[in-house]
Amino acid sequence: MAAKILIVEDEIAVREMLTFALKNNGFETFEAGNSEEALNIVSKNNINLVLLDWMLPGKAGVDIAISLRSSINTKELPIIMLTAKSEEFDKIMGLESGADDYITKPFSTKELIARIKALLRRSAPQANMEVVTFGSINLNPMTHKVKDGDKNIILGPTEFNLLHFFMTHPERVYSRTQLLDFVWGANVYVEERTVDVHILRLRKSLESEASKYIQTVRGAGYRLSK
Ligand code: CA
Hints:
This protein is α/β, with parallel strands linked by helices. Helix content is 40%, strand content 20%. The chain contains 8 helices and 11 strands. Calcium ion (CA) binds next to loops. Calcium ion binds next to loops.
């Protein structure tokens, strides 16, 4: 079944170009020119990924990402930000607003498709379906549910995969580069700082005691430990 991609972009020519490229690569596409349309489409269709233009009038791009992330139904929906020039875009702010990845215009269709496929892959259910526990955390890869004691923890797709990786490889230190390879996949071109942002988000979502399991090892990377 073709993955359903929502393209949110106010410039019609760009939107049409993206639609054409995605359709050519076997995706099913939906188009929105503003946040109202975007949220309406997301609520009515089972969208698998959102391509979101950062440069929408007002601060609509960020607002859409924040509003998708704050709703329980769309909290895990993968988002790729489309940005104009790298210097006009605050990468960390983009990622903190809830995007999983970003791509700078102009980009090649090939690069865009590779990014989409990589993000869909890391949002897809894991191959290892065994329930794992560590301390008070319980993670079920089959249902994508994470619990800290009795409390349900809701994570974005990248944070979920990051936690799943740590829980299946406890007590070992991984560098940012290794985490990018294992969790993001070898074909993704993301900066090492991206790892820090997602670690921060993971800790925030875990709150309280469990967040202390995700430890920074100075000069080396991160590990899951008590
Ligand atoms: Ca635009």
